[in-house]
Amino acid sequence: MYTTNKDRMTEKIEYFSKFGALEGGGITRLSLSAPALEARAEFAHRATALGMTVESDDVGNTYATLPGSEPGLKRIVMGSHVDSVRNGGNYDGIYGVLSSLEAVETIVTEKIPHRHPLTVMFWTNEEGARFEPSMMGSGIVLGKFEKEKMLDVVEVGGKETFGSALEKSGWIGDVKNRLSKENYCAYFEPHIEQGPVLEEEGLEIGVVEGVVGMVNYDIILEGVSSHAGTTPQSYRKDALRAAAKTILDLWEKLGQLPSDLVFTTGEIFCKPNIHTVVPNYVKFKLDARHKDMAVLAQVVDVIKNLPKDVYGCKLSYEEHWGRTSIAFDERQIGFIEGAAKELGYTYKRMYSGAGHDAQYVSEMLPAVMIFIPSKDGLSHTVVEHSTADQVWRGANVLLNAVLAADRAL
Amino acid sequence: MYTTNKDRMTEKIEYFSKFGALEGGGITRLSLSAPALEARAEFAHRATALGMTVESDDVGNTYATLPGSEPGLKRIVMGSHVDSVRNGGNYDGIYGVLSSLEAVETIVTEKIPHRHPLTVMFWTNEEGARFEPSMMGSGIVLGKFEKEKMLDVVEVGGKETFGSALEKSGWIGDVKNRLSKENYCAYFEPHIEQGPVLEEEGLEIGVVEGVVGMVNYDIILEGVSSHAGTTPQSYRKDALRAAAKTILDLWEKLGQLPSDLVFTTGEIFCKPNIHTVVPNYVKFKLDARHKDMAVLAQVVDVIKNLPKDVYGCKLSYEEHWGRTSIAFDERQIGFIEGAAKELGYTYKRMYSGAGHDAQYVSEMLPAVMIFIPSKDGLSHTVVEHSTADQVWRGANVLLNAVLAADRAL
Questions:
Q1: pLDDT digit string (tens) for A99-135?
Q2: Cβ <8 Å between B229 and A262
Q3: Between chains, do A268 and B267 touch, taking CB under 8 Å as contact?
Q4: Residue of B196, B238, B247 lying closest to A240 (CB–CB)
Q5: From CA B189, how far away is CA B246, in angstroms rounded?
Q6: Is B45 within 8 Å of B165 (Cβ atoms)?
Q7: ipTM over 0.95
Q8: Where in chain A are the domains?
Q9: In CATH, what number does B213-323 get?
Q10: B296 lies within 8 A of chain A by CB
Q11: Global pTM?
Q12: How far is A123 from chain B (nearest CA, A)?
């Protein structure tokens, strides 16, 4: 088994943490912003120094490739993204890029033989924090979003379009450089877990089997607004009381489905939201995720069977959006699991609850992800953290998995 | 028994409804705004035409007085306010002023003898919709608010201060004109009920015995925010789930107190309020009102005995504000009840759940209110409505109650 260089890996994380650094920790590195362009430039500089060729495609997705020993073989690609959310952390996204770079740096410096060209890549605008939706770069390449529509997307809270920001960035390359079945044969994406499971269970590596499916519903309660001081309780049709009842009902009923179902009522909107007025309208969102779409169908059944009248308020619902569960390629999963096992790391096979570029890529290439633990399960926050050892172990699993793929494919 | 003129009463309501009229009905007539000044001018014009002397005090509260037959007697005063909330109706406030004016017009035109001077008044800025707090004009006169501080209050969503708006209005008069114990002996305030009780019970008049006391608490649930897709349910400390539980608990526990207690959770604030994040902080308000302060003390006990841990979230509370229950003067109540009875109107003695200028005045003068039914219990909305008959009956009760007071005092 090979291992990457822990100090070098730590240095990469620390160095890139300065691009968009916030006072007191964390970063804001929105897609194509000045700090994101600094991170891109530093990546290109380091990749070039390792003998890699850096190319971008027509939406700024960027691929740095180290030649392999056997002509005609397709590339093995690994990576993630360099952008962050507002007030994000030093690991989400960038960890996947830097652990990939470290794996290649190890291969270069230790002259580890490999047959396939090895590509380290990052996707443009994974977070969608500046330009919605998220996973835009991979979504365009995988045909999920129309490029022309995406170019017209205006930044959140500003005036610049994605197209104009891309143009100004200098990172527009050739459409022919896009990830493709013709030129690539396998995709690896290391990432922080963004959840508490690995840490709570004392495990070192998550072997990611897929990305859970998701349903997202608006649930609406409509009552009658009336004066807080003059309306006897028995006359009230209080939409917030009805929403509270419905939220608890959902916890109770969804709690009876398989225990690995996750569901969240994270967003609520109350009208008129004045303390002296009985609310007449409350809308909240239900987000539910599971790897088995049949379980999500049960969730939808629960929603459809909610009582239509809750304390005199009318209940209705609306499907907001959803996504199908994605299972990663079993052979790819095997490379990760094999590497973790041989390195002697504790691990578990698990599904990702969050969305990742890998889920789109998996429709084109055999794909897989590696998770490392997140301190307290936190991400999208400045206190997001993984230890130097956790970071290093993930890079080691990646390195050996890629080399296994290189031998096998 | 005397009666006012129904057509004339209806005309008054319709005429004043144009000041600040909105397309499709209702009004926005914020205190001291252009339409409020038009309403003031029209009031002064009509009062003067009836032989009344119009005076304002130093904060624009305005008093139109018709002399009585017996020198040296104090004034009997009746009225309410001319301002409205944003997108308010044609009755809240203005009805009290116009029914008072109609009562005096009846006395003048029918030459009804009366001993005391009779004053029709309106208070400045009852609603507090433009300048907070509400009941500002009466609050200043009754020593609830410091005038100098109030003059510096900046309008909601704008830059003008109350002091500057008052200055520009031309309605600043002499501080000596303020309502006082020395010059006044009784206060009557007709108003729409703003609740459903009279309509639901098929009654024509509410004989208002007082204004309920109130407590207002912030209730806060603090959990831990985490990713909606990656955090198993059992690890969650979901502040919105905990708030939902607490709202239902409050309904259950407060529902065991006397049935005329009203309580409302009308305002909720959820952080970060993103559908993909478990909420870590929810604050909601509890407003509870009852005429008996001992019942409100039981409400406070319920709040203090809420569990401090709800689904792993920390519960805390903060008293926001409160007010003591006010009982109106029994003799004044008797004038109203007697008039309603002699006119053959159906009525009930009841407390006001909403706050009114009369509650401040009651600390200085024998005061009372008359309620007329509100369609569907609605107020502070463009569809606020009372029928011409309901409006007229209220004016008739006022007229006869004032004349009874005139004889008795």
A1: 999 999 999 999 999 999 999 999 999 999 999 999 9
A2: yes
A3: no
A4: B247
A5: 39
A6: no
A7: no
A8: 6-211+325-408, 213-323
A9: 3.30.70.360
A10: no
A11: 0.81
A12: 21
